[in-house]
Amino acid sequence: MPRRRYQLPKVLQSDEDRMPTDTVCTILVRQSTAGQAERHTHSSEVHPDVLIAQARRMGFERTLVCDDDMGIGAFSTTIEDRPALRRWMYELLPSGESKVVMVSMEDRLFRDEDEIQHNRFIKLVKEYGGWVICGPRVYDFRKQADQDMFRDKCRYAKEYIIHHIKERLHPAIQRSAMAGRYAGGRVPWGYVVDYEPRSETYKYHIVYPPHAPLVHEHIFRYFASLAHPTAIQVARHWSREGLLFPFYETWVEPSIVRYTDRLCERDDQRGGYPLSLRQTNSLLSNVIYLGYRERAGEIALDDSGLPRVCHPPLVDPDLFWYCFDYIYAERPIWAPPRVGPSPRRFIVKQSPHDGKPPGERFLAYGKVRCAKHEQRLSLQNDNGRVRLHCNAGDTWRRGYEAYDCVSPGVNKLEPVICQAFLDHLALDEHDVAELARLLEQRLSQRDMREAALRRQISEATSRYEYALNASLRPENRAIAADLMARAVEAKEEATRSQIQLMELQQRQTISGQAWAMAHQLTRVVERVKATFSEWSRIAQSQVIGLALEDAVVGYVNRYTLGLWMKWCGGRESRERVVMSNGKYIEWTEEDQMMVKEWYERLTWTALLQMFPGRTRTSIEHIAGHLHLDRRGKGPFSDEVPTVCPLIDRPVIDVENSMEKYGFSLDFAPAVLTGQSSRRGPRTVAK
Ligand SMILES: [Zn+2]
Questions:
Q1: What φ, ψ does residue 567 adopt, rounded to 5°?
Q2: How much is the pTM?
Q3: Ligand 1 mean position to 609 CA, how many Å?
Q4: Is 409 helix (H, G, I), strand (E, B) or coil?
Q5: DSSP structure string for 352-393
Q6: Mean pLDDT across the stretch 60-86?
Q7: How buried is 477 (Cβ within 10 angstroms: 0-12 exposed, 13-18 middle, 19+ buried)?
Q8: Near ion ligand 1, which residues have CB within 5 Å?
Q9: How far, in Å, from the CA of 564 to the mean position of ligand 1?
Q10: Ligand 1: distance of its center to the CA of 286 in Å?
Q11: What does the pLDDT look like over 534-576, one tens digit per residue?
Q12: Does the structure show a pLDDT above 60 at 55?
């Protein structure tokens, strides 16, 4: 018998088929602020209020808006990566507190690349009898049709991302950026974006006159003028001088203004944007100021493989790379190679004592390390005398170990450093030739081509080594011949590049202009030598800071410090500094016992023999501590007691911590025994 043509509609059999409006409706939103929803009117995202109103209409009395998934994409993330969704699935849904989740669209939930996440979601929601509302659609996953529809929607969202965004839009934006155009995003200070008259879509960076000089003068040039440049000092300079980037003029594209307003702090009272520390570092290393265009780690290159100048540069390359080297240890591969060693970066601490910058208090601040701990010495004010101090041997932290470390006065070291600097400040013929060669390189941009060749050589060499190693591995036996051929190819390429490089270097002749500039520099050097002592301390410290690459100070013996200095360019100097006060040596208990017993009974000759390495002052000092008094005592014996266990002890001295820096003991005068430092050399009292 045929079945009925039209079946009766299914009757609602139980409460299970009705949406559980008596539970909480969890609303997941991604763009929660009203401002965002207003600005992004083209976005499919709905304002949370709209969703709340919809839930009310559907009969929910209680709603819960969760926006903690904001900023976490639905593409290639798991359920566990997204706290709000996780909470609903693993807490609210199983407990029955909220059986319904609401989003504006399916793709807000899943754009899952592998289609695993949305299937897990369907399974779990079905198990607990949950409901999902996506915009106008209501899904009950106990129905197969709803499951399929949800799956299709998620799959479509995924494919949209893959095909449209990832494969078309992103590469298109990147291509456009690599052609030198503006491709959206933050416009750095000093520039704005304008349309080229030729084309409506061709946007590019143009210099913005109210901001450009601030970037050049008060960021780059100020940074470069510091003895020890740090971004924080630039930020301090801005707040000290009350500088800010004035608000944009009305003709500037509104999108730039909005972008800046959102990302930067506004100072409405003074009418501008203050510079934040965070911005300073990125600004100082942004190649956009050279006119280059960089996006997603890629730089726009021209046909010859050099960075392409896409808009007017703001900063000259020498100044830019000088600053860059202070911020990053390595330059990018397309940058001109660095001449000379990388500058050292360090943290400048504000002095707690006199407020003067440390460079003014000590000319080589931040450059000198202690030989024992290899740690940079800081400044310490010792009753008005500034001395260098090693924190590694701090008295408070390490007890008497502090005495192990050097603590020379600034006035002792500075003349030695300045003299060594001036001694090295001489240009011989070889130096002038080298200078001329460097100047020529800079004038002709040859170094870029040279760098490209060097890079080719190193790449080919590493390819050669890799192929060679791989061909020797037993598992590659089948393709060994192929690998070998590849190795030979790489080797040939390296040789070719090598020959080109040599040709390039030979072809190089130094122009008259470069020679003239080099000779001019020798005259500058003469003037520096003649006038250096009259310079201001700040200027001196800037020059020393540039010239001195590294310095180490440590004891050679008790009375002599060794100072090793390495200058930029590789020269070294070794100087000794004789101290009036020897290194303090502790009085042991045994020593003190001997002082107690013999101080009031022996002549000074005998006492000094008894305590080798100690001065009369130091013996008097410890005797005072022990409340001993020689006055009115006597007669004194000249005989050193034979019971004295100290006499055979080797002369107290300190370890030569400067040995590894090339200081031998005979470099320093012998230990000055029996001399009182404070009163100068004296004859031993009879
Ligand atoms: Zn130390």
A1: -95, 155
A2: 0.43
A3: 32
A4: strand
A5: SSS---HHHHSTTTTTEEETTT-PBPEEEEETTEEEEE-GGG
A6: 73
A7: exposed
A8: 370, 372-373, 390, 392-393, 405
A9: 15
A10: 38
A11: 888 888 888 888 888 889 998 888 788 889 999 887 788 888 8
A12: yes
